[in-house]
UniProtKB/TrEMBL annotation:
Sequence intervals crossing the membrane: 6-23
Record GO terms (molecular function): aspartic-type endopeptidase activity
Family per record: Belongs to the peptidase A1 family.
A Pfam match: TAXi_C
Protein name (Swiss-Prot/TrEMBL): Peptidase A1 domain-containing protein
Keyword annotations from UniProtKB, A to Z: Membrane, Transmembrane, Transmembrane helix
GO biological process entries: proteolysis
Taxonomic source organism: Dendrobium nobile
Length: 462
């Protein structure tokens, strides 16, 4: 790890800072300003507001709105607002799972396809965690709509389904394949069935699936195909799980959309239509709207190579080379970096984290501290401070691709009396770095699987 001041990209930031100071002298700079040495954050802007800001009208036929699960932009209010402690505990469980999965020592974890009936120890399929962001997809003919979370860390798409042996509470009526004129079963010797983590054959030779997530939440049922309506695009013969037995914590969403790199993911299934590319912008707060787009028509994006880890082939890896905080650039080379939509807070090597924390503490020295919030150990009580000034931050990927963090990607708002640095640290410097959803907020993020590159651009959404 090397720390340097006023070099390379951080230097560019510094000059923009002087410029922005001049023009913004008498204004409250919003947390969304991307350039500059400091962010002046309107503290209340980080807390949930009472109205939902609607998105601009620039829609695309393969573009869906993304909203926060607990936000006002969510048409049906959800009442399972889990506590911050619970959110962080689940986040850590997902991180632990990714760490286990991405290291050699876990070669014994399930091979790509196990038979449901093979004598294997209970193994965890893929990581599903906070998944705070949800979209509405249509299934069947006539189209019924379902709100599902999406996950770059897993492949299979599924919804709870009739007949239901075991279902958790959801807001929408269950998907009922018998009510759809376009539904068909999938045979257990078909390609997609054999690509599942765990599959089996029913007495009529149709495909059965089972997916177990890192916290032992599970879904079990039939693999089927039906029409998927994604925004106004129609995807025929989409293959997904009809979950008859669903147990554990799924946050009351109707199911999950799998955006991983494996064969059954929506990206692989629609490769002919969208060239193996998808893009999203995760909104900054619970009352703003982002997007999920199949394909990419996103301008002003800079690309860094997409990498693969043989132990976790469905996950998206890239190479983080430095972090800038204020005018300090910290160069380092982690063993690997996962870009993950389902981890909430990024996990950094302890040596890098402590440097960032020290710089952050210095700049925040005038504010009263607050108790740590689980893995977020640097918190402040900002009750009496309407605006705070924090250093701007950016993540720098291979090829000097810079991703500027939104204010909401630097400070996490538990309550106004407990606002924390929105990063956590790994157990040791050898563990893979995880870039979570919080540090992706407001960015255009393009996953170009065909050309093995990942793009970042600013101002994708609010
Ligand atoms: C999956 O669900 C079916 C009933 O829908 C049940 O017969 C089967 O035992 C379940 N498998 C597992 C592993 O839970
Ligand atoms: C439902 O799934 C759980 C977890 O896999 C399993 O223990 C249970 O036996 C299943 N129930 C049925 C009826 O298949
Ligand atoms: C929508 O996105 C697709 C896929 O990237 C692109 O080809 C198309 O031009 C876009 N359409 C509009 C109206 O922006
Ligand atoms: C935060 O600061 C305010 C104002 O000083 C104080 O009244 C309140 O008790 C503090 N809250 C916590 C949780 O420390």
């Amino acid at each position: 790890m090397a720390t340097s001041s006023s070099l390379l990209s951080c230097y560019i930031l510094l000059s923009i800072f002087f410029f922005s100071l001049l023009i913004e002298k008498n204004f409250l700079v919003s947390a969304r300003e991307l350039a500059g040495k400091h962010h002046v954050i309107d503290v209340k802007s980080l807390l949930p507001s009472s109205s939902c800001s609607m998105p601009d009208k620039s829609t695309n036929s393969s573009r869906l709105n993304v909203v926060h699960r607990h936000g006002l932009c969510q048409s049906q209010a959800r009442h399972d607002k889990s506590s911050h402690g619970e959110l962080l505990r689940r986040d850590q469980a997902r991180v632990d799972y990714i760490h286990r999965r991405t290291t050699n020592s876990n070669a014994h974890l399930n091979p790509i396809s196990d038979s449901l009936f093979a004598d294997v120890p209970v193994s965890v399929g893929y990581a599903l965690a906070s998944n705070d962001y949800i979209i509405n997809i249509g299934l069947g003919t006539p189209t019924k709509y379902f709100s599902v979370s999406f996950d770059t860390g897993s492949d299979l798409t599924w919804t709870q389904c009739v007949p239901c042996v075991n279902c958790y509470t959801q807001k929408d009526p269950l998907y009922d394949p018998t009510q759809s004129s376009t539904f068909t079963d999938i045979l257990c010797n078909s390609y997609y069935c054999t690509q599942l983590n765990r599959f089996g054959c029913s007495s009529t030779s149709t495909c059965l699936y089972e997916e177990v997530y890192f916290d032992y939440s599970s879904t079990n049922g039939s693999l089927i195909q039906d029409t998927l309506t994604f925004s106004s695009d129609i995807i025929h013969n989409f293959i997904y799980g009809c979950g008859h037995n669903n147990t554990g914590y799924f946050g009351q969403v109707d199911g999950l959309l799998g955006l991983g790199r494996g064969a059954v993911s929506i990206i692989s299934q629609t490769a002919q239509l969208y060239d193996n590319v998808f893009s999203y912008c995760l909104p900054s707060g619970s009352n703003t709207i982002g997007y999920l787009l199949l394909g990419s028509s996103v301008p002003d994006v800079n690309y860094t190579p997409m990498l693969t880890n043989p132990y976790a082939p469905s996950l998206y890896f890239l190479k983080l080379i430095a972090i800038c905080i204020g005018d300090t650039r910290i160069d380092f080379s982690p063993t690997g970096t996962v870009l993950d939509s389902g981890t909430t807070f990024s996990r950094l090597p302890p040596s890098v984290y402590s440097t960032i924390r020290n710089i952050f503490k210095n700049i925040m020295a005038e504010y009263p501290t607050a108790a740590p919030l689980f893995s977020l150990d640097t918190c402040y009580n900002l009750t009496n401070y309407p605006n705070v000034e924090v250093l701007s931050m950016s993540l720098i990927y291979d090829g000097e691709v810079i991703a500027y963090l939104d204010g909401s990607g630097i400070i996490y708002e538990a309550t106004i009396s407990q606002m924390c640095l929105a990063f956590a640290q790994n157990n040791d410097d050898s563990e893979v770095v995880i870039i979570g959803a919080t540090q992706q907020r407001t960015l255009n993020v393009v996953y170009d699987v065909a050309n093995l590159k990942i793009g970042f651009g600013s101002n994708g959404c609010k």
